[in-house]
Design goal:
The complex is a heterodimer. By secondary structure, chain A is an alpha+beta fold. Chain A contains 5 helices and 16 strands. Chain A has 2 domains: 81 residues, 2-Layer Sandwich (Gyrase A, domain 2), CATH 3.30.1360.40; 152 residues, Cyclophilin-like (Cyclophilin). The chains are: A alpha+beta, B alpha+beta.
Chain lengths: 244, 311
């Protein structure tokens, strides 16, 4: 059951469900693709999240009711919408030592060895439910619950861009330098957000992430390629089209 | 090409235009002028398109020297502007000569003033906008606030700038009207009766934990049903009023995160959002609920007046 309601006088929300699930999130993505294709005059931006799609509009160009009518029409037969194939983006990570100062803490907390933490973390495929919090920050689903660890008691004032961390049942990558309380287990040389690069953002909602463990030497050589602008990120595209 | 020289930047001065849309799905805040209305007026007076990049100065003005003749305009907060030590009027075109110096004596009302320059500020366009987003060091002047010594290039002026004045009726009064109109938010129904009553009938004070991201308010806590304040993280729009666990509301502004996990109880209407940008810590405000239709009417009316008098 879809629900529609305003968020202020310049946004319309389509709510697809009341929980976090892949099925609901796929529907959000299918809706976004379909509505965006229409190029509705006055629609200026979209914010897809776990279970909502926010459509930002200019009220001087389109009325709420006219937009709502169009959107209701477009979201008919949601189950028949086809989903664009998703991409899997490979994120190379150097785990442990100075790059992941909390790897041992995460291992101890979960009665695992640091190597097991790395193996478990880098063997899953993570679904990107949405981006938010900071530019390029991905809300990921699919972390093995054997790695779940509470946040640090004392948040760090400065966490470098590229830090890979765990907080409760979530894992994520800091795209820009920020303060934060996540347990840091590694670091990627790849930039999730780079305003001077095209594309500016490496990951989009609906993508999948795969972490790969790399040595310090590989980290340094990738870092150099990234700063030279020659690094080719590994992306695999799904060939099959799914139903939403 | 005309240039301006920043002699002192004041408390916080940044380059802003109408913001960076189109990237919110990637978590990129819109940024842009906090008070878009004043930005529009200042630009129109300086002979620019409404959304040209200008300087947003916060709480104190900046000192600016001009390297060639040109035109400027100042709209928004009154910081006591003077040109070569002589007071100048806000809300009208000001013609400047090479060597002139613009200064500000101190805050008289409001919080943010907009200084527009004929030709607009020509910092590089990053992701479709010249706006500064400080947290990600993006846009504006190398992604940072202005500092003394900055030399800023202005765009070419295509036609001669005419003297224009903003009619009195279009000049906001920041000192008297402290009631802000809202429409009910996506989770308005999560408030219990006393919570809703507190929100809509009592005064809230702007705290000093307020910035371009949002204004944190203090006052009677707003109770939600079952004390639940969390939602599944979802989109936030301009003027969204969030209710975190403290029960004290936050009004989200230009540098707001694109998504959040607190109840979205209401939204300040677009026609009133620009006056929110002019609030200072300590100011006391009240909220009044209106309908979405009324909000759109008020916004369209204001746009009509700007177009009628200034374009």
């Amino acid at each position: 059951m879809l629900q529609y309601f305003p968020s202020g006088d310049s946004a319309l929300i389509i709510k697809v469900g009341n929980e976090i699930s892949l099925e609901i999130n796929h529907k959000i993505r299918a809706l976004l693709t379909k509505i965006e294709k229409e190029n509705i005059p006055g629609v200026i931006d979209f914010i897809p999240s776990y279970n909502e799609l926010m459509i930002c509009y200019d009220p001087l160009k389109i009325s709420f009711h006219s937009l709502l009518t169009k959107i209701k029409f477009l979201s008919n037969n949601l189950e028949l919408l086809s989903l664009a194939p998703s991409s899997t983006i490979v994120i190379p990570v150097h785990y442990g030592d100075d790059f992941g100062p909390d790897l041992n803490e995460v291992a101890n907390y979960n009665n695992l060895s640091p190597d097991e933490v790395v193996r478990i973390h880098s063997s899953a495929s993570y679904h990107v439910y949405m981006l938010g919090f900071t530019p390029g920050f991905c809300y990921l689903g699919g972390m093995d619950q054997r790695l779940a660890t509470p946040r640090k008691h004392n948040p760090r004032l400065k966490i470098p861009a590229g830090a890979v961390g765990i907080a409760e049942q979530q894992t994520g990558i800091y795209p820009i330098e920020s303060p934060g309380g996540w347990q840091l287990i590694g670091q990627t040389p790849v930039k999730l957000f780079d305003p001077s690069r095209k594309p500016v953002f490496l990951v989009e909602p609906g993508d999948k992430l795969q972490f790969v463990s790399i040595t310090k030497e590989t980290y340094n050589s990738i870092l150099k390629e990234v700063s030279d602008g020659t690094y080719q990120i590994q992306i695999t595209h799904e060939t099959q089209t799914n139903k939403a | 090409m005309s240039k301006i020289i920043i002699r002192s930047a004041g408390f916080l001065s940044t380059v802003q235009d109408c913001g960076r849309t189109g990237f919110q799905r990637f978590g990129m805040p819109v940024s842009g002028a906090m008070d878009v209305y004043s930005l529009h007026l200042a630009n129109l007076l300086a002979g620019n398109p409404k959304c040209a990049a200008a300087i947003e100065a916060t709480l104190t003005g900046s000192e600016i020297a001009f390297s060639s003749d040109g035109a400027i305009a100042i709209c928004g907060a009154d910081f006591g502007a003077s040109l070569n030590e002589k007071p100048v009027n806000m809300y009208e075109t000001i013609f400047v000569k090479k060597g002139d110096v613009l200064k500000f004596s101190g805050l008289r009302n409001g919080c943010r003033t907009y200084i527009a320059f004929a030709g607009g500020i020509e910092v590089p366009v990053v992701m479709g906008s010249r706006s500064t987003y400080l947290r990600a060091k993006t846009g504006g002047m190398d992604g940072r606030a202005l500092v003394a010594g900055d030399i800023i290039t202005l765009g070419e002026i295509s036609t001669k700038v005419q003297l224009k004045k903003v009619p009195k009726a279009l000049i906001p009064d920041y000192s008297t009207d402290m009631t802000f109109r809202v429409i009910a938010g996506p989770e308005a129904k999560s408030l219990d009766f006393t919570g809703l009553r507190n929100f809509l009938t009592t005064e809230y004070r702007v705290t000093d934990q307020s910035d371009r991201m949002g204004l944190r308010l203090d006052g009677l806590p707003i109770k939600s049903i079952n004390d639940n304040h969390d939602i599944i993280s979802a989109g936030i729009s301009p003027g969204t009023i969030q209710l975190p666990g403290s029960g004290l509301p936050i009004i989200l502004m230009a540098d707001r995160q694109t998504t959040g996990g607190y109840l979205r109880i209401a939204n300040v209407i677009s026609a009133d959002l620009d006056r929110i940008a002019q609030l200072k810590p300590g100011d006391k405000i009240k909220f009044l609920e209106i309908s979405l239709e009324k909000a759109h009417e008020l916004f369209a009316e204001r746009d009509f007046l700007i177009n009628k008098f200034l374009i």
